Structure formats: structure tokens, C-alpha cells
Amino acid sequence: MHLVDVTASHAKDIQRELAATPVHFIKVYTLGNSRVVYKKKHGFSEIVISNKLRGITDKEVDFVVLMV
């Protein structure tokens, strides 16, 4: 499995999110067909993994938590 940083491809969406919310850091990755969004807010972090074609596996969750 490989996380590929695609943050630059989502620059407009990220700028909008940063301006409208208390989030101060956003990274977007792909993991095969899955999209991973990593956000940092003051005091905590959030990871969202989504895939429109299938469910997310425990193996993917463990890998993302380890790598991010």
C-alpha cells in the first residue's frame, strides 16, 4: 500500500476549508481507490478515509494511522 499526496490537486477546496473552519492544516492522499483526508485543528487531529466503491478495511485503517 502507498499513500500518494494529492493535496495540490485540491488546492481550491483546501483554501475554502481553511478559511471557513478552525482547521489549520489539511493534507489529501489517495490509497488506491480510497481517499484519505488528514486535518489538524487546535488540540486534535482527524483522519477521514472514504471509498465510493467498497468498504474500508481494518488493514487500510491501521496503515493510514501508522503512516500519517
TrEMBL record:
Gene3D superfamilies for the chain: Streptococcus thermophilus LMG 18311 protein like (3.40.1720.10)
One family name in Pfam for this protein: DUF1827
Protein name: DUF1827 family protein
Organism: Ligilactobacillus salivarius
